[in-house]
Amino acid sequence: MPRMTREESQAQTREKLIGVAQMLFARDGYAATSLERIADEAGYSKGAVYSNFDGKEALFRDVLDAHGKTSLATILAALHDAHTLDDAIERLARWSDKQSRTGNWPSLIVEYARHAKPASAFRKAQEKVLRAQWRALGERLLALTSASAGTTLSPETVGALVFELTYAPAMSFVSQPTSGDLLRVALQGVFGASAAPGPASKRTKR
Known about the structure:
- The protein is mostly helical.
- The protein has two domains: 1-53, Homeodomain-like (Arc Repressor Mutant, subunit A), CATH 1.10.10.60; 57-195, Tetracycline Repressor, domain 2, CATH 1.10.357.10.
- The protein is 66% helix and 0% strand.
- The chain has helices at 6-28, 35-42, 46-50, 56-79, 85-100, 105-116, 120-142, 155-166, 179-191.
- Helix 1 (6-28) packs across helix 4 (56-79), helix 5 (85-100) runs parallel beside helix 8 (155-166) and helix 5 packs antiparallel against helix 9.
- Residues 34-53 bind DNA.
- Keywords: DNA-binding, Transcription, Transcription regulation.
- This is TetR family transcriptional regulator.
């Protein structure tokens, strides 16, 4: 097996650190997860963390980016063969119901915002990451409907609606309505879609 180049080795280290950080942040929260713990769990020195990231906030930003890209890829895969807006909304609602109950990302992001108080440079970088994800999803949804020609909403706004309703903190513990229920109402209102409430709206209470 050919030996990895320095760049390949660093990329592998960075990827592993992000993966371990994502697990620890999600499990233990932002404040309780130190760079020392991340480095130790990943099998590296703290210096390896600082050679790849400017600090804890920068690492968290990349964790948030990785999580968002995974979520976006899952959504786009689910929408790949959706030929109607109604079908797309129903698939999104089901994804949202499942995602809102997975892990503690909503509370983690709230905790991060409260404790980190990131500087303006970090906020701008994080905003850029989120807007790119929102835009990609919004463009996919707008492409499914001729109603998009009459809407004044940007792709970013449409995508943000989906992500933010899904990851709203209350949606992780409130039984009814579910995030999927809210998405159906919101997206049907935005596009004037005729999708009927699907199975998710009739689920039993948690």
